[in-house]
Write a structure and sequence with these properties.
- By secondary structure, the chain is an alpha+beta fold.
- The chain has one domain.
- The chain has one helix at about 5-15, and strands at about 5, 20-25, 30-40, 45-50, 60.
């Protein structure tokens, strides 16, 4: 089940919970964006894939 949220809100909520957030597009032609939540020891705590629609206004966290 996907939770619908705005792209910016999802990113901002995640970044406030952890010491660092690293993110990257999964490929040049992809509409999927990987968000890694990193603790203070530089360990990835969680990874989420944001699927971005064509208009880039709404993202889905899966």
């Amino acid at each position: 089940m996907a939770i619908q949220d705005t792209w910016r809100d999802s990113y901002m909520k995640c970044s406030m919970l952890f010491g660092e957030v690293k993110s990257q597009w999964l490929s040049d032609s992809s509409s999927e964006y990987r968000l890694d939540l990193v603790d203070n020891n530089q360990q990835v705590v969680s990874s989420k894939i944001l699927k971005v629609p064509d208009d880039l206004r709404i993202g889905h966290i899966v």
